[in-house]
Amino acid sequence: MSGAGQMRVTVPPRGRRRRWRRMEILRYIVLPALAGSLAGLIAVAGLLALDVGSLRTLIFAASDGWVALLLLCVGFVVTFGSAAIGAAVMSLGQEGGFW
Question: Rounded to the nearest 10 degrees, what angle do helices 65-90 and 31-50 cross at?
Answer without folding.
Answer: 140
